[in-house]
Each structure stands twice: as structure tokens, then as C-alpha cells.
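Protocol step 4 of 6: structure prediction from sequence.
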Amino acid sequence: MTEPAHVRWAEPGDAAAVADRIAAELVKSGEKRIAFTGGSTPIKVLALLKDRPLDWSKVTIALTDDRRVPDDHPASNFGKIHAALGRSGAKFERLEEGMAVAPFDLVWLGMGEDGHVASLFPHMVALVRPGPSVIATTPIPLPPEAPFERLSLNKRALKATKEIILVVTGASKKALIERVLKGDDRFPVADFLRGFGPPVTIYWSE
């Protein structure tokens, strides 16, 4: 299979491989802007990074998306990331509906079984905004495990970065990505793996 020129597969790995990639970004000189995905994987990665001598003070952390719930709600991605890094010295950029988004150095995406990335679903209600922006989205149907309205970086904001890492687990998600790379464009992840965009590195593990 021939991937688009801007897409490559990393060596098969797990949270440690992603932790190494994040650490490599932090040791580069200058201020950094990184967008983190939600879910459980970032917490595993941050647990591996917490004892490394990394300078988080020059890093601004945003989220690719979040549920519209209080920070102390179990479904809050911001709450989890802030709990893990709140004392690190990192700066946090909250998602606010309609705000313009500055470019990133690295965007970390996950992907659902339906091919959604951030909170950009195959079927959703979304307020369209021009430019790199934060938009309000509501998946259709609402996932029973997370029945919440969302805030999400739109496609332009997610692509306004030097690099994207796409981190997925499981054979079914790998198979979906392979279908997309062969030309199936029915899934939101296709907007990042095909056509114009920044380099994408796929980290896959079983």
C-alpha cells in the first residue's frame, strides 16, 4: 500500500513511543504550542513523562476537543489534563466557542471506531466558522458512554500545525485507516490522511 506523501507509520509502539515523541518536541528550543487529544491515552503518556527533566514552562497546552461539562466532571478532558500537568508550569488554553486559534507546533489526534477525530463526527450538528476556530458540535446520535455536547477545534485549526500525530489502538482502527489510505473518504479522519495537510505520523498499537 502506498500512503500519501505526507503520511507515515511509526514503528509499532505504545504509550512509551508517544511519550518519546512529546519529549522530543519539548526539548526543542523556543516556545511550543501543543494540542492534546482527550481520553485515557494522554494520561498514560503524561504518567511516563512526569519524572523526566522537561521544561513545561515554555509550553502552551490546548485540547483538540472537550465535552461541555464542569472541570471536575469525570468526562472533562481539560480536568484530567490539568490535574496531570497543572503544577508543571505549563500554560493552558481553554476552548471557548468561536475563538480564533493560533497555529500549533504539534497536534495530537485520536480516532474513534467511526473514524471521528477531535469532536468532528461523521454525523453531527456543528456551527460552521471561518478560519482556524473553536466550534460547537453535537454528535448524532449522542454516544451513550458520553452523551454531551462538545467544543472542538475545527479542521482548519487542527491542520494549522507543523505536524500531526495520530495515535490509535486496536486492529479495527488500523483497518479503518488502511481503508482511508486506499481511498475511502467517508470518515472524518480522511480529511487529515488524504489531500492537503501537514505531515501525519500514525502511532498504532494492539
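Step 5 (inspection) to follow. The longest helix spans residues 15-26.
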